[in-house]
Amino acid sequence: MTTPVETVGLSELYAAHRLALVRLAVLLVDDQASAEDVVQDAFAALARRSNGLRDPSAAVGYLRVSVVNGARSMLRKRRTVRGYQPPRTIESVGPEDRAVVAEEHREVLAAVKRLPDRQREVLVLRYWSGLSEAEIAAALGITPGTVKSTASRALDALERILKDREGWS
Length: 169
What we know:
It is built from 8 helices and no strands. The protein is elongated. It is mostly helical and 169 residues long.
């Protein structure tokens, strides 16, 4: 039995719509290589759909929405990377410095404890246990997308908590 996507012909969809979708993605992400990646991911997601699409004529719409969502995700990721500030390095390892670092660690752990359960679980599994998004999703019984959004909200909340504390800028 063929799925609706096979009926539409994925290779025909690719040949007919790839260029227009790449143009759309370029307008959204301002980078040809990233745009091509977003479009490729959209076609790969369509190919992975085991049940295909209920309406084969909706394949182009599905791809368009997938490209827009992929571009948004890429832009969010870029913003996160640009906003990253590496942890400050400590020149000296004297007892005073160790005490300051220990106090900062205590403050971060206290802030993590104030997060909602799901956010705390995702952060702990991601940053302390080093699990991938897929592994976290499987462990918590949620989707990888939920892991991403929960981690993002948790980091934002953690930043707000720490900024509210005295001594954090």
